[in-house]
Automatic annotation (TrEMBL):
Membrane topology, as annotated: Multi-pass membrane protein
Entry annotated with the keyword tRNA processing: no
Transmembrane segments: 46-63, 75-94, 106-126, 138-157, 163-184, 196-216, 222-245, 266-287, 299-318, 330-347, 359-382, 403-420, 440-461
Taxonomic superkingdom: Bacteria
Protein's name in the database: MFS transporter
Swiss-Prot/TrEMBL keywords: Cell membrane, Membrane, Transmembrane, Transmembrane helix, Transport
Xref: InterPro entries: MFS (IPR011701), MFS_dom (IPR020846), MFS_trans_sf (IPR036259)
Major place of residence: membrane
Annotated organism of origin: Paractinoplanes deccanensis
SUPFAM superfamilies recorded: MFS general substrate transporter
PANTHER family: BLR6921 PROTEIN, MAJOR FACILITATOR SUPERFAMILY MULTIDRUG TRANSPORTER MFSC
Localization terms from the record: Cell membrane
């Protein structure tokens, strides 16, 4: 008779998998100028080094969550970690933009299995209540802190070794996760045997990819260009086909839209769209600002994110107690307002700013606010989820974060390029600073929209639990 693994080992395995996924969202950011110089990326094309990963990750997360539910957690985790390690080696050896983008997309496919699975194993291991809330707090802290640490680690590796090591470093991390999984994660299935909705996953990924591609084409050729309009048309058709397939045709739908009737689930997913956009785009433009405008070395740029890393940890650690005392609505709304204030302050930085007057205070405000919101929002989304839909709820939440990041990055890249072109600045650094400033200001608007949603729609804790359980019992 096999022994039941200690919950702490399960949590450790889940957190290492989550760290691997979130590190790669930001790990390459500081390396982007070096990547562009070495492989010959254009300014608009460079965003695909980030978007290839986040699009594959976001578009396939729902399939990844379903895959883990059907084949078992152990097999899914081994598969995801193996693919992630192999794709990282291929990316580290890439000799052209196309090879690197393909490797990043493969990493995203692997991450689409690991990201929802890391939350799913927590949901099925820890009972609902204090134990699960604490575990989710640790998991969220790793997610928030890992994003910031990715920038620091990326700077150290790029300057000390080469940009290629921001990909190759994933191999030992994946091996460590495999060892932890071998001793802790069991072959649990949270859903009866069935088929994977590959067609649904392809349609939703095509819709989001076409939408992002259209936005980037609009930045390069104009919103009325044939390339942009045709991409938007594909996005619309693929999105409509996905909805029709899921509702009327799919024998085993990728998304059971009824789960969105749960108020905690839909509110959390709307908020996470904006939150994902804030974190992905924020790291991207902040990294470029530090190196292209302030002329920081990769290592110095990475070190500049240490206050952000500390702030996310502080925010994540304090979120649980604050939520217990004030409620999810107050904590999420307050965190988002604080995040918006940080983005507004980021937008005031220019070519003459310094780290102290243009970067430090915005980093602290934004990071604490994001840390507060991430934990409270994740706890809200997973409240009362039925065991058979743990992967679906986890996948929805993670998909929203990544898709929000991809769409926001595409939109904000367009905004930044247009603002830089019409800035009237006499220097390249000044023009870039103007573009990044406008991107940060628009990001602040996104966060304020999320704050309004949180304030108006977040249910009380008691109401959330009662309604979520009622939805689960009706299945």
């Amino acid at each position: 008779m096999s022994r039941t693994p200690h919950p702490a080992l399960v949590l450790a395995a889940a957190c290492v998998c989550q760290a691997l996924v979130v590190l790669d969202v930001t790990l390459v950011n500081v390396a982007l100028p070096s990547v562009a110089a070495d492989l010959g990326f254009t300014p608009a094309g460079l965003s695909w080094v980030v978007n290839a990963y986040t699009l594959a990750l976001g578009g396939l997360l729902l399939l990844g969550g379903r895959f883990a539910d059907l084949v078992g957690h152990r097999a899914a985790m081994f598969s995801g970690l193996g693919l992630f390690g192999a794709a990282s080696v291929l990316g580290g050896l890439a000799q052209s933009p196309g090879e690197l983008i393909a490797a990043r997309a493969a990493q995203g496919v692997a991450g689409a299995v690991l990201a929802p699975l890391s939350l799913t194993v927590i949901m099925v291991t820890f009972p609902e209540g204090t134990a699960r809330s604490r575990a989710i707090g640790v998991w969220s802290m790793v997610a928030a802190g890992g994003s910031a640490l990715g920038v620091l680690l990326g700077g150290a590796l790029t300057q000390g070794l080469s940009w290629r090591w921001v990909l190759l470093i994933n191999v030992p991390i994946a091996l460590a996760a495999l060892l932890l999984a071998a001793f802790s994660v069991r072959g649990t299935r949270t859903s009866p045997a069935g088929r994977l909705d590959v067609a649904g996953a392809v349609l939703v990924t095509a819709a989001v990819t076409a939408l992002v591609h259209g936005t980037i084409q609009a930045a390069e050729r104009g919103w009325g260009s044939a390339a942009a309009l045709s991409s938007f048309a594909v996005a619309l058709l693929a999105g409509a086909a996905f909805a029709g397939w899921e509702l009327r045709v799919a024998p085993a739908p990728l998304v059971r839209f009824g789960v969105l009737r749960s108020r905690p689930v839909w509110v959390a997913n709307v908020i996470v769209l904006f939150l994902g956009g804030t974190t992905v785009a924020g790291f991207y433009f902040a990294s470029l600002y530090l190196q292209d405008v302030l002329h920081y070395t990769p290592l110095r740029a990475g070190a500049a994110f240490l206050p952000f890393c500390l702030g996310t940890v502080v925010g994540a650690m304090s979120s649980g107690p604050l939520t217990g005392r004030l409620g999810a609505r107050a904590v999420m709304t307050g965190g988002l307002v604080l995040g918006a204030a940080g983005m507004v302050l980021f937008s005031r930085a220019d070519a003459d700013s310094t780290f102290l007057d243009g970067f430090l205070l915005p980093s602290v405000l934004a990071s604490i606010g994001i840390g507060w919101c991430m934990v409270a929002n994740t706890t809200l989304a997973t409240t009362g989820a039925a065991p058979g839909e743990a992967g679906l709820v986890s996948g929805l939440l993670n998909a929203g974060r990544q898709i929000g990041g991809s769409l926001s990055l595409a939109v904000l890249t367009t905004v930044a390029l247009a603002a830089a072109e019409h800035s009237g600045a006499t220097s390249l650094a000044g023009a870039r600073a103007a573009g990044y400033s406008r991107a940060f200001l628009v990001t602040a608007g996104f966060v304020l929209v999320a704050a309004l949603v949180a304030a108006a729609a977040t249910p009380s804790v008691t109401s959330s639990v009662r309604k979520a359980k009622q939805v689960a019992l009706r299945q």
